[in-house]
Records
---
Amino acid sequence: MVKGATVKETALKERGSKAPAKETGVLIKDMRVSRSMRVFRVANLAFLLVVVFLTLYPFLNILAQSFSSEGFINAGQVNLFPMGFNIETYKLILADSTFWRNYGNTVLYTVVATAISMVLTTSFAYAIAKKDLKGRSAFIGIAVFTMFFNGGLIPNYVLISSLGLRDTLWAVVLPNAISVFNLLIMKSFFENMPRELEEAAAIDGLTQYGVLFKVVLPLSKAIVATMVLFYAVANWNSWFQAFLYLDKPELFPVTIYLRNMIAGVTTAGSAGGTTENMGQIAANIQSVTIILTVIPILCVYPFVQKYFFSGVMLGSVKE
Amino acid sequence: MAMRLEVPPESVPKDAEAGTGKPRNKPGGWKLAIKRDWRLYTLVLLPLAYFAVFRYLPMVGNVIAFRQFQPGGNIFGEKWVGLKYVTLFINDPSFWQAFQNTVILGVLTLLFCFPMPIIFALLLNELRSQKFKKLIQTVTYLPHFMSVVIIAGMILQNFSMTGTVNQIGQALFGTTVNFTQEAAWFRPMYISSEVWQTMGWGAILYLAALTRVDESLYEAARIDGANRWQQTWHVTLPAIRPTIITLLILNIGTFMAVGFEKILLIYNPLNYATSDVISTYLYRVGLESSNFSYAAAIGMFESVIGLTLILSANALSKRLAGTSLW
C-alpha cells in the first residue's frame, strides 16, 4: 500500500518537473540534440524489438516443430512456421496415460507443497515481524544464514533417504518448504502494517492468534496471493527433488516425463512410436511435450508477472 | 535478490512498548517473554523444526567428509578417517578440471550475464512509449517463469544439427556444427542461453531504482551543459549504483553454484572437458558412483568457497563503496 503511493508520487513529481523543462527547451542547441535523440530513440526501439523477437523465437520455434512432420524437422527446414502440418504427435502424447498421471502428480505436488510452504512461511514471518519478540534476531539469523551456506547435495540426499522419504510425496514437498527470500518479503510486509490496528484488536480482547487470523491475514490478501504464486510457480517448475528421490514412474511429475524424453531415456518408441522413426520423431515429440507443459504457465503468466513484480519490489526496497 | 536482508537493531522503535506498561525485552526475561508471547512462539516451532531438520542437519551431515560412510548406515558415518577424502580430491585431476570449468563459467557469467540487465534497463528507461515498454517487459520476463527442464529442451533443440542456429550457419557459411556435442561450443551455448534467460527479469530491480532517480538532478546536469550520454554517466549510473553493487555481491556469492541444474540437463560425456563443473562432478561421483564421503568432501569445499566469496565481496563493498548486504 505504502509502496504504491510513493511510486505514484514520484511519477507525479516527474511529470510535474518535466513539463516546464520541455517548454523552456526551445533553444537552437536543444533542437540539434533532439534530432540525434530522435535517431537514438528509433534505433533503441528497433533494437529492443529485436530483443523481443529473440526472446520469443525459441518458443515459436518449438511451437512450429510441434506441429511439423518429422521429415521437415530432420531436413532442418522448420523455423517459425510448421512444415508438413501434423497433429498426430499431439494425439499420441495426449493418449499416453503416463503423461496424464505425471501431469496430475505435478498438480498434486504443487498444491500440497504450496500449502505447506504458506503455513510455515506465514507463521514464521508473522512472528519474526514482531520487533519486541524475544529471540527474534536469533530466529532471523537462523533463517538468513541458510541463504549463504547449505549442507550440500550429498548430506541432503543421505538425510532424505535415511528418513525413509524416498518414493514419497514428502521428498518432493518438504526439503524446500521455506524460501528465505519469500520469508523476508513477508516479514517486511507484516512489519509495515500499522501497529495501532493490532493494538486495537488486542484491546478488543483478541489473542495473538485472533489478531493474526481475524485482522492481519484478511488485510494481507495481496501479499498472500503473491507468495502463493511464488511458491506455486517454483513447485510447478521443479524437477530436481523428484529426479533425486522418486524412482517409480507413476510418481513422477511432468517435468521428469519431459526430462526423460530430452535425455533420451524415454524414446518415441516407448511413448508409442515405431522403432524405425525413433530418432526422427524425437524433436517433434519433445516439442509437443514442451508445449503441453508450458500451456498452464502461459495461462497464469499475466497474473503471475504482475504479482511477481510487486513482490520483488516489496522485497527489494531499501529505505 | 532481497536487498534488505536484515533490519538493523537500532531501527526498532524506542517507544514500541509505550502505553502497554509491561516490561519488555529485559535481559533474562525469558519467562515473562514466553508468558506474554507463547502463542507467537508456537508459531515459530514448526518453521524452526523445518530449518533444523532440512537445513542444519545436512550441514552437520557434512561430517561424513571426514568419516567413512556406508549407504543405509549412520547418516553421520561409521568411523573417522581424517583428511583421507580431502587429499583424495586434491589429487584428482577430474576435480581440478571441474574446478577450472566452474571458475571459467562463473567469470563468463559475471562478464556477460551481469552487465546485460543494466544495459537493458537503461535502454528500456529511454523509451517514451509506455505501451512498448510494457510489452517488452512482459515478453522478456517470460523465460524466467519457465522450468529449467523446458529451457534445456529448447537449448538442445535450437542448437541441434537441424536446429535454428545450424540453419543460420548453413545459410551463411555453408557448414553445420554439432554444438551440443563439441566441447569447444559448450561455453558459448551455455552463456548465450543464460543471457537469453536472465536479461529481462534481471533488469527489474534496476528499472525500479531508475524510477526513483530525482528528476531535478537531470535538470541540473542539463543546465551545466551535460549531454544525454553525460547525464547517463553522471546522474543515472550513480543513482543505481547501490542496486548494482548489491546484485554484484549476490552474484559473486553464487559464483560457484553456476547453473547446476541446467548443466546437468544439457551436458554429456562428449563435452565434459568444458561442461563438467564442481556440482555436476560431485553429483556423478556421489550419486552415480555412490562415493558419498568423497563427494561430500568436494561439496563442503564448494560451500566454504561460496561462503568465503560472499563474505569477502560484502566486506570489500562495505569498505570501497559503503554499500553492503548487512
Note: Residues 14-88 of chain A form one domain.
---
Amino acid sequence: MKIHTARSFPFVILSALGACVAVFSADGAPSARNAIEPTAQARTGDLVVDGNLPRYEPSKESLKAKLRVAGSSTVSVLLDRAGDGFKRVAPDVSFDIKGEGSSAGIAALLGGTADLVGLSRQLSAKERSDFQAKFSYPPTELIVGFDPVAVYVRKDNPIDSMTLADVSAVFGAAPSAGRSSAKVWGDFGLAGDFATLPLSVFGFRSESSHANPLKESVLAGGSFRSELQMQMTPGAIVTAVSGTKGGVGYLSPHPTYASASTKTVPLARADGQGAVAPTQATVSDGTYPLNLPMYVYINRKPATAVPAPTREFLTFVLSKEGQDIAAGQRWFSIPASLAQQQLAKLK
Amino acid sequence: MAKPRVCRMVAAALLVGASAPTLSGCLYSRPPDDDKPAGEIPAGSLDQVADGKITVDQIEELVRGFADRYYAAISSACDALALKPLPPETRLALDRFQTRTITAVYDIASNADPFTQLLDLTVVVALTAISLTDEGVAERNFGSDAPLLVMPLVQANNEILEIAARALTDEQLLTLDLLIRQWRKDNPNVEVVSFVRFDNFAASRGKSVIADVRAGTGLLAPVDAAKQALNEARLFAERVFYMAKRAPLLLSMQSSSIMSQIAAMPEIRDASATGVRLADSADRISKVAEELPTTIRNEREAIVTAIESSSDALRGTLGDYERAIGKTDELVQSVRELSESTNEVVSGLDAAAATLTGTLEAAERVVENFSTPVDPDAPPAKPVDPELYARMIADLKGSLVEVNKALESTKALAEGPLSGPIWDRPVAEIDRISKDRVDHAANELRTLIDVVFWRALIFVGACFVLLVLYKGWSMRLASRISAHPRDVVA
C-alpha cells in the first residue's frame, strides 16, 4: 500500500499543479478578452471608396412602402445590408427580401411580384427577349457593386499570371477547347520543385450560390473538376491554400481575405494580353477580367417615373453611404462616374 | 475554484431556461420581415425542424462530437511533432498550444447554450487555423514538419463550418467568416486566440451584424415550457458529466505542459546540459572500462618485458641496496653507542657543576661575613665565630670532593672508549657509503645506456627489414602496372 501511495504521489502533485494551471488559465481568459480593443464600426477593409460618389440627400417626400426584393442570394444580401442603412433615413420603408436565386428572381420580375431583382450576372438574351415580349420594353438594368473573383496561391508559388483559359484548366472538369485539366504546376511552365508538384484545388461546394459566378464566367456553365476540395467559406479556402504547397483556390480578392501566406494571381483575358491584378481600381474600370458586376433590374415603363421608394432606395445604394456599406462587407464599390450613369437611369 | 464555475453553469442553465422562446429551435434563413413578431415565425419543434436543418439538441451533440475529434486530431499532431528534436521553447509552445486549445474547446462544448457553443467553437477553430496556417506560425516553428499540424487544423476548420452550415444560412455563414477575418485583422497581436469568443466581435462590429448572425436562432419553434425546463435540466446534467469525464485528459495535458515549462527554465536547461556532460563523461568512462582488460593485458606484458630486459641491472641494484642497508645498520649502532657515552659525560659534568656551585656559595658566605655593613641596631658581631668557620671548611671540603669527581669523570671521558677511534669510524663509514652510491649511480647509468642502445639497434633493424619489404612490394606492383595498366586504372 505504501509503495502504491509513493508511486501515486508524483501524479497527485502534478494533477494538483495541473488544476492550478487550469484555474490560472481560466482566470487568465478574461484578461485576454479584455485585450480586445473596440474599433470603428464603419470599415471597408483596405478598400478606398470613391470620395466623389454623391452623398445621399433624404427625400422630402413621405416614403412609406414595403419593397419586395428577389434574386440571387448575394445581391439580395447587399440590398438587405443597404436596406438596414436606408431605414434610418426612411423608417417607414420596410423590405421583403427573398434571396432564392437568379431563376426565382427573374420569374418574379416577369411575374411582377418583385420591385427589385438582384442578379450576379446580366440577363441572358432569352431572358431579355422574354421580358421584352411580355412588356414591350426592356428591363432597366443598374450596376450596384462588384463581386470579383480572384485566384489564390501560396506566396512561395512562382506563378506570376494566368489567362482565363488557365483558370478554366485549374478549376473546370471540361476546360476550354484545346486544354485539359492541369495536373501539376509544370503545366503552367513552372520549373524546379513546382514542375512536378500536383495542384491541390480548393473551392466552394458546388451547390453554394458563391460557386456560381466562376462557373458562369469562366467555366461557361460547366462543372468543377472532381478533384476540387470543397470548403465552406472564403476564409476556409484561404486557410486551405495557405496550408498546402501547390494549393490553389478562388474567392473574393477583398482585402479582408488577404493573408501573409497567400497571394492573388494577376489574370489576363487571353494569351498575349497583359495580366491585371485585382484591385479596387482595376475592378472598377473593368480591366480586371473577373470583376463580376452585381445587377439590379426593375420594371420601369418608358416615360414613367420610378416609384419614389424604389428610386430613393436605389439612389441610396448608389451613394457614398450605400457603397461604404457594400465595401464594408466583402464587395467592391463602384466609381463615381459609373454611379452617375446608373443614377441617370432612374430619372 | 470550482464553485464559481458551477455557479456560472447553473446561471447559464437558468438563462437558457429563461430564453427558451428564443433558443429552442434553429434558423436557416433570415426572417422575411423584420417587423414580423416572433410568434409568427414558422414553427418547428425541438425534435423536428423543417428542410433538413438541425435542432438545438443536435447542435449540442454535433459540437460535442466535434470537440472530441478535435482533441484527437490536435493531440495526435502534437504527439507526432513532439517526437521531433525540438528546442525546449518550441516544445513548451507546442504543449501550451495543445493545452490551451483543447481546454478552450471543452470549455465551449460544456457551455449551456448550444448555439453559443457552435458560434464560439467556430470562432476558436477558425482563429487557431488562421494563426498557425495563414500567418505561418506552424511553418516558422516546425519547418517541413508543419503539415503534421496544419492539415488537421485545415480539416477541422472546414468540419466545424460544415456543422455551422446546418444551423446557419449561407449568407450567415459568410458573415460569420467575414467577422472572424476582420477581427483578426483588427487584432493581429493577440497570440492566444483560444480565449476569443463570438461575443468579442460585438465590441468591434456593431450590434446589427452580430444580431444578424445570432438571428440564426430566430426562427424558433414555440415549445411547451415544462418540456423546455425538463430538457434544460437533462442537458445541464449531461454537460456536467461531459466535462467531468474529460477532466483527466485536461489535467494530463496540463501536467505535460508544466513539465515542458520546467524543462524550458534556464536553471533546468543548465542542469540538463550538465547532465549531458555527465552522460558524455560516463560514456567515455564506459569506453575506458571496456578497453581496460586489453589495456591491462598490454601494460602487464610491457611491464614483464621491461622487467625481463632489465632484470640483471635490477638484481645488481637490489644487491647494492642490501649492502648499503647493512652498513647503515652498523652506522646506526655506532651512533647509538656514541649517544650513550655522551649522556654519561654530560651527567658527570652536571654533578661537577653542582658541586662547584655549592663551593662557590660557601665561599660567598665567607666573604659576606667580612663585607657585610655593620648594623647599628644589631648586637655586636663576634670578631671570630668558630662555628661559621667550621661550616665553611666542611662545605669547602665537600666542594673539593665533587670537583675531584668531576675531574675524574672528564678525564675518563677524554681517555675512555669514545675518544679518538669512535669518531673516526662513522665518518669513514659515511664516506664509504657515499662512494658506493656514486659508483652505483654510475653503474645504473651505464646499464641504462646499454638498454637504450640495444633498443635503438632493434628499431633500426626493424626499419631496415620494413624498407626491404617495401622495396620488394613496390617493385612487384610496378611490374604488375606495366603488365596490366587498364586493370589497375579500373
Note: Residues 1-43 of chain A have pLDDT under 50 and may be disordered.
